[in-house]
Amino acid sequence: MITAQDFYKVSCAIVPLYFAMLVAYASVKWCKIFSPEQCSGINRFVAVFAVPVLSFHFISQNNPYQMDTKFILADTFSKLLVLALLSLWSILFKAAGGLDWLITIFSVATLPNTLVMGIPLLKAMYGDFTQSLMVQVVVLQCIVWYTLLLFLFEYRAATLLIQTQFPGPTAAAITKFEIDDDIISLDGRNPLCTESETDQNGRIRVRIRRSTSSVPGSSALSSSMGLTPRPSNLSNAEIFSINTPHHHANLECTLGSGDVAFGYRSTSPQLSAGYASSDAYSLQPTPRASTFNEIDTTTFSTTANTPVWARSPATGRFSQQPSPTFNGVKMVWESPAKCQGDDQRQGYFKEVGEKEISFRDCTKIPMPEVTDAKVEAAANQEMPSAPVMLRLILIMVGRKLSRNPNTYSSVLGLVWSLISFKWDVGMPSLVKYSIKLISDAGLGMAMFSLGLFMALQPRILACGAKRATMGMVVRFICGPLLMFAASAATGLRGVKLHAAIVQAALPQGIVPFVFAREYGLHPDILSTGVIFGMLVSLPVTLLYYILLGLY
What we know:
Blueprint: H1 4-29, H2 36-61, H3 69-92, H4 99-110, H5 114-126, H6 129-165, E1 174-179, E2 192-198, E3 204-210, H7 218-224, E4 239-241, E5 299-301, E6 308-311, E7 318-321, E8 330-334, E9 337-338, E10 345-346, E11 349-351, E12 356-357, H8 372-379, H9 386-402, H10 405-423, H11 429-455, H12 465-490, H13 494-504, H14 510-519, H15 523-550
Parallel strand pairs: 1-3
Antiparallel strand pairs: 2-3, 2-8, 4-11, 5-6, 6-7, 9-10, 11-12
Helix pairs in contact: 1-5, 1-11, 2-10, 2-11, 3-4, 3-12, 4-6, 4-12, 5-6, 5-13, 6-9, 6-14, 12-13, 12-15, 14-15
């Protein structure tokens, strides 16, 4: 039975967290104490130092040799159950969104804010033993589930890149991807370009590199010096593109079939990735009008020994289709640069020895709408072999994780706990109290940063009332119900069952939103889940606490 003292104890754990969030919200929204640039600096500190150190602090103190098997199995089984149901749904109803909605709904349903909200809340509700349970969930989230989520995002990004650059059956001939060392992800925040080489057997080797438009000072370089294309081993026909500044009147903004910046506006003002944004977090694409007045929009071809440029039935954009007799010729497809002053883009495609090809189109490229025709065209899209795709995605995921401080904090915390509890080795006091100092600030700063984030949003329900309601139903009803089913299947009972259900009803985690913003996949829904979810979670978790106490 829940008593008044229990409520007071829970309030003592929750109210300070929401107080920190409210102070941050008021300091930006009403008092105007912090500018957006200053908020960005605070968020940077939280992401790089506060939360990683907080994570290391909790994980390093948890005994990995006393893991609760049933609790971990219940949590794992619930996430696998959600993933299986969503996979089946995406296969049966591809027109409804497929992989995109699988990633979004999986993030909303299964990845709560366990580290910041879960540990203090569950500890106040059910006792100190829940801290160990929550830390075990945090370890799995950081090492397993966030990595899986990142894998899905990179797979989606790689699929979009291939569909854009190699539509139809062309992609099936790709045997190798080479990625330059300075490319961290295929998320599209920096313009990329692809170079392809076809050998005499029709096999394609693709190199992915950063576009010249994403390199500081690239416009000046391209306008002041000529670029010599690499020699082709079997033909003198070579296609290349150069980004040039807006003041060159003889060059026009182009559609650019090599535009693989298929996602969203870069967070850096110097970089352009091709999509306009209504605000920093909703990232809604602006539709683009396409006008091809100079050439036939159905096909464009040259001689028998040169590639064929055709409009893709899947994307409606021009792309290279290799001719059956075209071997060993190298293509360079590059993202158009950002035009000065009005976010328009420019560039040109030129065939050496032939006339210049220029397409007049300076507006934005929308994300493709899901229609029956495009679903049918996507069904005809072939992909590279599974080993080739797997290698590409693993490289990207590895590079992304290697630059994430949370990856190192989780792994180091787990390694230290394995060593310390195995051989009874204590952490030196000098190191211990240094970590504790930042860790104590990490919890409050994480909530403070969340309040800053809320204050900078133009509206709480960024995705609209309908989608926000659906997201809350998935987060606070479907998630706990599936956790209850998984717990029952694994034999979890008593207080641990209650803790598992309340943990599943926590507000949405921030990391899935960060991924959604970086990869341009429903960031408005995840933003609403973070903000509105924090407001809704307080009465919801208390309601679950009361109902489970009566059970």
